[in-house]
Amino acid sequence: MSLQTPLVEIFVQHREQLRRIAMSIVRTADFADEIMQDAYLKLADGSCMRSVQKPLFYCCQVVRNLAMDHFRRRTTEASYRSFGLDVEEMARPTLVTPEKVLNEKQVIAALEQALGRLPERTRRAFELYRLQEMTQRDIALTLGCSATLVNFMIRDALDALQGCRNLLDD
């Protein structure tokens, strides 16, 4: 008979009491069951090869510690979700430099100039499509033309803006 066998027996005998301890901390039956499984495996694994003077107390402490760890982990994860924090986004600092601001202003000016050279109806179709997020069918109804013509007008606007792409790459 190994040293951990009495612990496993005590654990099985007092399973309901130990589950109530886990339940009082994590407040969810599913999580309490997970903790009970983890605790059983920890005790059955034999990772504690020393003699335990109070086996029931030891089992209670194992369950309590696992439940507290689980509770802390869930609370921490929930705080990231509730504040909408994206850890990956936090790792990337955004540096706004004067050069970047100037470049963005130049891009906007070039886009406005390119759109200004388009026929009014083509520019309007493009703005409705990109800024108002209207469908091509709805744009056709608004402008009184066919959806096919709207498709061509949007393509013409995109072609006109293609010349500004090199500004964006810089």
The structural class is mainly alpha
Number of helices: 10
* Percent of residues in β-strands: under 5%
- What is the N-to-C succession of helices and strands? HHHHHHHHHH
The low-confidence parts are none
Q: Which overall shape is indicated by the principal axes computed on the Cα atoms?
A: elongated
Biggest sheet, open or closed, and with what strands and sense?
none
What would your notes on this structure say?
This protein has 170 residues and is mainly alpha-helical. It has 10 helices and no strands. It has helices at 4-13, 15-26, 29-45, 55-82, 87-91, 98-116, 120-130, 136-143, 147-162, 165-169. The longest helix has 28 residues, at 55-82. The N and C termini lie far apart (74 Å). The mean pLDDT is 84.
What's the topology here?
Blueprint lengths: L3 H10 L1 H12 L2 H17 L9 H28 L4 H5 L6 H19 L3 H11 L5 H8 L3 H16 L2 H5 L1
Helix pairs in contact: 1-3, 1-4, 2-3, 2-4, 3-4, 7-8, 7-9, 8-9
Which tags fit this structure?
170 residues, mainly alpha, elongated
What is the gist of this entry?
The protein has 170 residues and is mostly helical.
